[in-house]
Amino acid sequence: EAKAAGRGTRVVFAPAMLAAQVAEASLTQDLHGAVGRGEVVVEYQPVVDLTTGRVDGVEALCRWEHPVHGRISPATFVPLAERSGLIDEIGAFVLTAALRDAEVWAVAEGRDVSVGVNVSAHQLTGGKILAAVPSGRRGRTQLLLEVTESTLVRADVLPVLDELRRRGVRVAMDDFGTGQSSIAALRVMPVDVLKLDRAFTVDIATDARAAGIVRAVAAMAHELGLPMVAEGIETTAQHHALRDIGCGLGQGFLLARPMDAAATGAFLTRSPLLVGAR
Ligand code: C2E
Ligand code: MG
Ligand code: MG
Ligand code: MG
C-alpha cells in the first residue's frame, strides 16, 4: 500500500511496514522447530454428501499453537512457511499425520476414507513429495492432494502431479474461481476433484449472478466427470441452493467444523462414511 501511495507518502508508512516486517521475521523465527516442539497440530473437517448428508471424507487443516500468541491460522503462517522454505517440513508432518489418522478411522469404520491434504507449490517442485507418497492408496485410505490453480499452472509441478496421479493420488483444484486461470488450468491439467471457493457459497442463496455462475460450473464439472465440493457452507439456504444446483459435496461450519483427530473419529462413527460416492 505504501508503495502504491508513491514516493512522497512512503516515509509516513515506513514505520508500520518495518513493524510488519519485524513481526513477520520474528514469527518466522519462531516457526523454526515448531513441528519438533509439537506446536503444529492437524484438524479435520468432514466433507459431506449434500443430498444424503453422509460423510464422504475429511480435509486436513493445520494450526500453529504458538507458545505466546496462541493459536495461529494457516492463512497467516503458511505464507511465512512458504517464503522461508519451512513448508516442506510442515507439509510432510501434515501429510504423515493425515495418512496415519485416516487409516485408523478407515480400519475402525471398515470403510474407505478419502483424506484431503493441502500442498503448496514448494512441496511439489523437485519432486520431494514423491518419496513421501509411494502410493495414493494405502490400506483403505485414499489421498487427495488439494492444490490451488496458481500452483497447478506452474510448468515445474506438472510432471510431479502427473507422477502422483499415476500412483493413484487424486488431485483437487482448490479455491476454484479465485485465481486468474481456472478454466485454462482445468483444460491442461488433469484434476480429479473441483473445490469451489467459499466466495461463491457466500452469495449463492441471495445473488442470482453467483447462483448462475455456480450452476454453469456445476454443469462443466459434470461434463468433465469431476466431483464438485463447495467450501464454506454456513446456512441451510446455501446448503439447499448448492444441492439443488447439483453440487454433490460440501464442507462448512453448518455441516461440521474442523476438529481434532479424536473428535473427528467420534464424528465419523456417528455419521457413517459413504462408500463409493465417487
Ligand atoms: P482451504 O484449503 O480452502 O481450506 C478451507 C478453509 O475454510 C479452512 O480455513 C476452513 O477452516 C475454512 N472453513 C471451512 N468451513 C468454513 C465455513 O463454513 N465458513 C468459513 N468462514 N470458513 C470455513 P483454515 O483452516 O484457516 O485454512 C486456510 C487455508 O490455509 C486453507 O484454505 C489452505 O489453503 C491453507 N492450509 C491449511 N492447512 C494447510 C496445510 O497443511 N498445508 C498448506 N500448504 N496449506 C494449508
Ligand atoms: Mg483445501
Ligand atoms: Mg479450498
Ligand atoms: Mg478456500
From TrEMBL:
Domain EAL: 24-272
Source organism superkingdom: Bacteria
Descriptive protein name: Diguanylate cyclase (GGDEF) domain-containing protein
Organism: Cellulomonas marina
